[in-house]
Write a structure and sequence with these properties.
Blueprint lengths: L2 E6 L7 H14 L4 E6 L14 H4 L9 H8 L3 E7 L7 H9 L1 H8 L8 H4 L3 E7 L11 H12 L2 E8 L12 H17 L6
Parallel strand pairs: 1-2, 1-3, 3-4, 4-5
Helix pairs in contact: 1-8
């Protein structure tokens, strides 16, 4: 059974990102997938200290509520990173998660204790779900390489973007119900990919 872990980097409860993410997961469940949703704003955790202790043994010395999140991520088939655009990139909450994932980078490239074969990558999908207030060209461009860093370190093929630019012009999802419908459709489509040939 396909399991999806969705991580919400928005600090706002019940905001636009929350709404389209919930719709995405609802669509995913219609395929029989199981889902879990983690809101970073609800988790008590510290930021990466840049101490590089993980470069010695591949283990982060920080132990807090974020520690088990990485275990759940690694056990998932699909990872969804959801973040609105703040100051032209992902939120501080999402960036903190990605920075804390440095210990996985260390396992891959320094201690050489973590590998993801092609067969694994073919069956694990990374999804960036993004919202923005403004609808201007390239509004999501700075977010793409940052989320890719975590997908690479956690063994997910970053193949999907589900984007909702220009929320402000609608007054948010309440004035743009089509965004919720589209998110639900994308959730169903992407969850179904795991069951198809090549996944």
């Amino acid at each position: 059974m396909t399991h999806i872990t969705a991580i919400n980097g928005s600090p706002r409860k019940h905001g636009n990102t929350d709404a389209v993410l919930d719709a995405f997961l609802l669509g995913s469940k219609s395929t029989g997938a199981t889902t879990s949703k983690i809101s970073l704003g609800d988790i008590d955790h510290k930021n990466c200290r840049g101490c590089n202790a993980c470069h010695k043994k591949g283990v982060c010395i920080l132990r807090d509520d974020l520690t088990p999140v990485f275990d759940e991520v690694l056990a998932s088939d699909i990872l969804v990173l959801a973040s609105p655009i703040y100051s032209m990139t992902i939120t501080a909450e999402m960036k903190s998660l990605i920075d804390r994932g440095q210990f996985l980078w260390a396992q891959k490239y320094i201690t050489k204790t973590l590998t993801f074969p092609k067969e694994h990558l073919a069956k694990h999908i990374g999804v960036y779900l993004g919202t923005s207030g403004q609808n201007i060209p390239h509004i999501f461009d700075a977010a793409f390489p940052v989320v890719r860093a975590l997908f690479n370190d956690t063994g997910f093929s970053y193949t999907e973007n589900v984007l909702f630019p220009g929320m402000d012009q609608y007054g948010g999802v309440k004035g743009w119900p089509e965004s919720v419908a589209a998110a639900k459709t994308e959730g169903k489509r992407i969850a179904s990919l795991i069951c198809h040939a090549g996944y």
